[in-house]
Amino acid sequence: MSAHSPKELRTLDYCTWCPRLCHFSCPSALGEASEDASAWGLMTLARTLDRNEMPATQASLERLWSCASCYRCQSFCKHGNDVPTVLATARANAVRAGALPMSLGPLAEQVATRGAAVDDPDGLNRLLARERSVAEKAVVATFFPGCDHASSSEGHTRVRRTLALLGELLGGEVKLAWREDQVCCGGTAKRLGLDDAQRRQELGTDSGTSVNTHPRITDCADLAIRDGWTSLWSVLAAHSSELGDRCGDLSPVTVALHGGCRERRLADTSREEIAVLEATGIQVVTTRAVNDVDECCAGDPVYREARPDASLRAAAAAADSWHGVDGERVTSACRCAAQFTAAGTPVRSLLDVVLERCA
Ligand code: SF4
Ligand code: SF4
Prior knowledge:
The protein is an alpha/beta fold. It has 21 helices and 8 strands. The protein has helices at 6-16, 27-32, 39-50, 58-62, 72-76, 83-96, 105-114, 121-133, 153-170, 187-192, 197-201, 209-213, 221-224, 232-238, 240-247, 261-267, 270-280, 301-306, 308-320, 338-342, 350-358, and strands spanning 139-144, 173-176, 216-218, 229-231, 253-258, 282-288, 328-331, 348-349. Strands 2-1-3-4 form a 4-stranded parallel beta sheet. Helix 3 (39-50) packs across helix 6, helix 9 (153-170) crosses helix 21 (350-358) and helix 15 (240-247) runs parallel beside helix 17. One iron/sulfur cluster binds next to helix 1, helix 3 and helix 5.
C-alpha cells in the first residue's frame, strides 16, 4: 500500500511526467550538478520506489534527502506542487525501513532529544528561567522564536531583545512559547523523516495556557503558516510608526538584503520587512528577489548535513550575487545564513540590525 495520500500521488504523477519546467530553479540540482537532485528527479525516484518498480536499496533511498526544502520549484510550477512535503512522506517511509543516512544520525539525535542543536544550553536555560518570573496576568502575547535561535548565545540574545521590544510595542509581557526540551516546531523533524514529526509540529500550541489564550507570534516560517500564528515581521510592520518614532531619525544605514527562500515563500514576509525598513531608516541597496536564480543558499540544516559539499557550492553561488555591492550584508529570514559565512561571505541578521537601532 502506498505511503502517500491521493493528493501526494497526484503530485508525484505531475512531476514524473513534467518536462522539468522548474529544474533551473533548484539549488540542489545546481549544487550536485545532476538532474537526479531536481524536483523531477527526486519525485520520479519517490514514485518509482512507492510503486516498487526498483529495489529500495540504501543508496536509492538516501537520494531522497537531496532536496533543500526551499520551495523554489513551487514558485515556477503550474500545479503549485509541494515537493518538500511529498519527499518528507517518502523520507519517513525510508526511515521506517531503516534507511536514515548515517550522516544525518547526529542531527536526528539532537532533534529527538533537544528539538534542535543547542550550542549554549546554559544560555537557553537562563532564557527560559525568565518565564518563571513573568506574571500570567501581565502576559499580552506569546512568542515562538524558531529553533535556529536556540542554537547559539547570539540567538538567545536576539530572543531576549525581541521579547523586550515586543513587550514595549504591545504594552505588556510577551512570553516564550518554548519549553525546556522542545525548541523546534517540528519542521526539521519532518524534513528528516522522523516519526515524531507530528508531535513536534504540535509544539507551541500546548506549552502553557498563555499560548492558547493570547496572540501567538513567531519568527519561524513553519509555524507562521499554521492557523493562529502571526509572523514577527507583520507585528513589527503593524507598529512601524512607533518604531519610526524611536529610530527613524537616526542616521540611515545601508544594507544588502538577502531574503530566506523557504521563509519568504511560506511566511511571505517581504512586504512587512520593507515597511519596517522604510520606517526605521534602513536603506536597502539590493535584494535577492524570490525568483533570482542564485537566491537560495541550500543551507537547510538537513540538506547541509546530507550533502555538505553541494550545499556549500550553492551557498558560494548565492554569495557571489553580493560581490561589488555596498552596504552591510544581512539576511532577513534566511535560516541558513551560516552557509554564507562558510562560503566566505559574513552575513548578519536583519532583525539584529533593527533591534540595535530601535530596541
Ligand atoms: S514541481 Fe512542477 S514544474 Fe517542477 S517538476 Fe514537478 S510538476 Fe514540473
Ligand atoms: S524544494 Fe528546492 S531543493 Fe527541493 S526540489 Fe524544489 S527547488 Fe530543488
